[in-house]
Amino acid sequence: MTVFFHELKRGRMSLLIWTAAIAFMISVTILIYPQMKPQMQQMDEMVSNMGSFSAAFGMDKMGMSRFIDYFSLECGNTLGIGGAMFAALMGVTALAKEEREHTAEFLCTLPLSRSRIVLGKLLAVAAQIVILNLAVAGCAVGCAAAIGESVEAGIMIPLLLSFLLLELETAALCFGVSAFLRGNGLGIGLGLALGLYFINLISNITEDAKSLKYITPFAYTDGAYIIEHRSLQWEYLAVGAALTAAAIAAAFLKYRKKDLAG
Amino acid sequence: MKAIQTIELTKRYGRHRGIEKVSLAVDEGDFFGFIGPNGAGKSTTIRTLLGLISPTGGSAEIFGKSIVGDNTEILAEVGYLPSEAVFYSGMKVRDILSFAAKARRKNCAAEAARLCERLELDPNRKINELSLGNRKKVGIVLAMQHDPRLYIMDEPTGGLDPLMQQEFFSLLRERNAKGATVFLSSHILSDVTRYCRHAAVIREGAILVSDSVEKLAHTGVKRVSLRGVGALSQIPGATELRFENNNASFLYRGDQTELIRALSGTSFEDITIADPDFEEIFLHYYSREGK
Asked: Backbone dihedral region of A74: left (phi > 0), alpha (psi from -120 to 50 degrees) or beta?
């Protein structure tokens, strides 16, 4: 637990900034909804004529005239991309930063086993992601109430949960990668997050690429499906859970035996 | 039981040399010097002992515990001072010290305060505001605050001013007098001759010699200096011959009667035959006895 709290303390500024930025953007998006509402009908018609572009963002399967549709599309993109980038960043730097900043020698000559260090860091990354999502969710619900829109818990909870799971999986994949890194993994982390995002866009456009949905956690965040079924798509989640477990296992196995740079 | 025992400990990197079959034995309570030029493998040996890197061959034990299997237990009994002490830059000295103490599940506050005072280190400063020497002091406090059984010091005096070096060594000697073992790596010979009882010399990843400092200083090699020499005939056993302005100087290993016999045909004004100084002996080890 020493490492866990140490990590939370070290990461508190970055958590605060990311949470504030994402919460701010989502609040603004929600608060301008009343002004946008009259135009949404027109928007619906326009979007329905845009073919694969609207398919890419899942806009072909639902309108935007209901608040929840608007929320899942507009806020979904912000929370999805923003949250995934934050998660990737946290995941990919967690282990690698010790070697990059030459603090690995200090940390790993304390009587803490490598496994405990990995566990502490992993839990700290997960906790930071949960904190960010709770804060953003609270903010979103508050803003929705402020403009007089109510959202059904039965939809809102799986929707927000899908983003949390997306972020946790992205973080785990990056965490697994970071165990193998010596230097700065930021490029790899952000590249991975954006890559997974684009894989999802492609799989939305082409029926042939639909099976790609199994490998990208962005598939969970299909607002149209969640709104219609009030549930997540378990077959994607199962694959995601396996990938997450594999990445975490790889991180433990690698870091336990890793030669640390001085 | 030995404090440190390594048997043919080997670490090969892809590109770098690492260490090759390093066998060392350090008794508990010893003050042991580990000498070698930069890049000889001192840090590699130490980092392997501490489990920061895994050996590719051989074995090593610290207080009878295997460096591979019992790493965490070993680290609990070791105080390690890295050659380049780097810490989390945004943190205060006080927070680093208490983080390390927490990780060791030990309350070290009183000892840490005492050490900070002796080393004139302000625990309220932030790490990134500290000079190299002051960061080194943080490293020293971290290595000492939990009162370990074994001190592993990698190039400890770099960055410290002479007064602080003295204070540092008197701290180490106090701990050593109370029974702790000190393993000190250095390329500064005077540190080793002044403080260490035993020493090993490492060069190009291999141990050249390991013995008491006293014995290492008496190697049977003599420094022979001649003044006012005309011409010098070939002397078997002479090395590092220097000859200029009618003065000759060389190292001689072997029977001294033979030396006198070899010199009998030479005319000179003055001769001294003396033990070479310690510095010279080690330079000799460094330069000649490698592979």
From this structure: alpha
- Name the residue among A103, A110, A257 with its Cβ closest to that of B104: A110
* d(C-alpha B281, C-alpha B213), whole Å: 11
Whether residue A112 lies within 8 A of chain B, CB to CB, comes out as yes
The string of pLDDT tens digits covering residues A57-109 is 766 666 666 888 888 888 888 999 999 999 999 999 999 999 888 899 999 99
Does an H or E element contain B169, and which?
Answer: helix B162-177
Residue A180's Cα: distance from chain center in Å?
22
Query: Facing residues of B31 across strands?
Result: B182
Overall size of chain B counted in residues: 291
Return d(Cα B30, Cα A15) in angstroms, integer: 49
Residues facing residue B7 across a β-bridge: B59
Q: Which amino acid is at B162?
A: P
B-chain residue closest to A120, CA distance? B103
Give, for all 291 residues of chain B, the pLDDT tens digit.
Answer: 899 999 999 999 877 778 999 999 999 999 999 998 888 899 999 999 999 999 999 999 999 999 999 999 999 999 999 998 899 988 999 999 999 999 999 999 999 999 999 999 999 999 999 999 999 999 999 999 999 999 999 999 888 999 999 999 999 999 999 999 999 998 888 888 889 999 999 988 899 889 998 888 777 788 888 888 877 777 888 888 888 888 888 888 888 888 888 888 888 889 998 877 767 777 777 665 443
Element (H, E) at A25: helix A12-31
Alpha-carbon gap, residue A182 to A179, rounded angstroms: 8
Which pTM value belongs to this model? 0.86
Contacts of B182 (CB under 8 A, 6+ apart): B30, B31, B32, B150, B151, B153, B172, B175, B176
How many of the other CB atoms lie within 10 Å of CB of A139? 18
Interface test with A, best of B87, B140, B146 (most A CBs within 10 A): B87
* End-to-end CA separation in angstroms for chain A: 25
What sign for the dihedral angle of Cα B257, B261, B263, B264?
A: positive
Owner of token pair 């141990």: B207
Gap between the Cα atoms of A226 and A152, Å rounded? 12
Flag if A101 and B86 touch (Cβ within 8 Å): yes
